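Minutes, project check-in

Agenda point 3 was the complex the collaborators sent over. CS summarized: two entities, 514 residues total, and the question is how they sit relative to each other. Sequences were read into the notes so everyone works from the same version.
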Amino acid sequence: MISVTLLGAGNLATRLAFALLESSGISIRQIYSRTEEHARSLAARIACCYTTDPSAIEPGSDFYIFALKDSALEEVASQVPANKGLWFHTSGSMSIDVLKPYTSRPGVLYPLQTFSKDRDVEFFEIPIFVEATNKEDLLALLRLGDKLSRNVRFLPSDKRRLLHLAAVFACNFTNHLYTLAGDILDEAELPFDVLLPLIDETAAKIHELTPYEAQTGPAVRFDENVIQKHLDLLDDPRKKDLYLRLSQSIHQDYTQP
Amino acid sequence: MISVTLLGAGNLATRLAFALLESSGISIRQIYSRTEEHARSLAARIACCYTTDPSAIEPGSDFYIFALKDSALEEVASQVPANKGLWFHTSGSMSIDVLKPYTSRPGVLYPLQTFSKDRDVEFFEIPIFVEATNKEDLLALLRLGDKLSRNVRFLPSDKRRLLHLAAVFACNFTNHLYTLAGDILDEAELPFDVLLPLIDETAAKIHELTPYEAQTGPAVRFDENVIQKHLDLLDDPRKKDLYLRLSQSIHQDYTQP
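CS then shared the predicted structure for the full assembly.
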């Protein structure tokens, strides 16, 4: 049996806890969260004990999972008593180095997905990227990853940072465009759900085509007639500015040799 | 039997032709395309006759569908001999007025989707927006729409323009963010498909949450630490600029009262 201590009770920690629970041969021994309500609630859902005090984290687990906000990572790690387990964080943008002062076995296991506490995701489909400082720990993380996902691979910190940056474009910024589109629909007194088939198809298309091949719309040929009409429709300077810059950026891709 | 003449042989015209063909009680009588190869190819696929000459469009159809590029719409319409059919275009951004000089029965039927010639779409799920100049023609378009989609509604030209603009944000600009994300993955020597589960989940989430609720990432709280690290990683001034502006735009949404 693999024993795990989970630090964190946010969106990622919650989804990870359920994925660990569903894997065979893994038991979660202890949960930590700074917020007692979160710690108690998650501990109750997966039937294990909890603490709100990092210095009360017990030794003896195989893995210590730091599924915390980037900004809390170092502070919490510095308060956990030293032990022989493999400590890893789950952050896309933090280096493996952040754990090095506090453990001789630092690692990273980064699941590339957007998580919500109450939204179930197929964890097994999520690509996972792992990193360690020696071969033995790397193998341990790859084995743990294999229990959680069908798509696990090694990735060093410098490439993980780029991956996280790409994810910000593909997820966070994309979602913001959905918000801006929703604002415009409000003006037309249309419900947001009229856009869902289009949004779904836009995402589905790039399973078969590259996004470069899939690009459509007035910006590809920089159709000034349509673009000017759209700019005239946009009162909000923020949307106008983004419209123009995104259109120019698209056009640039289709005029370069 | 409803008879239809289809002008256009591009992505939308092709998908529409197949949707019409699959509906009961509709027959396509004639296809027009300026490009003989396109006209012949589509006509062969749906077994009807074709022409490359707008003045050879035959009278007697119930509907004349102008599924053409915005820029070609008026020129082609001006060359089609007058007849008693209902003429409608399928453009998101063109007013119904563009057809008025050439027919007494102008209309619009706008299917909100991104189309590719060779990619099958579930046409019946696509929202369709119709417009006409009198009640009788509107009812005729609503009835035709009902044969093609389970989601058909009336929308006047001024609101359709806004809808089309929203679609540019939700589809064209989103796809461009996928392209930029792919560029960044290239730098990390990672294949594009590692992003697909994240992209799919980002689109799936907003079936349940509003995009405002679904927003995550460093820009929400304007986490300057992560944002600065990301800006440092971006050599390309275009990506750097879009990163900053999109982050600022997100942050603006989450700080306003």
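Noted in discussion: Residues 2-155 of chain B form a domain with the Rossmann fold fold (CATH 3.40.50.720).
Follow-up: revisit at the next meeting once the mutant set is ready.
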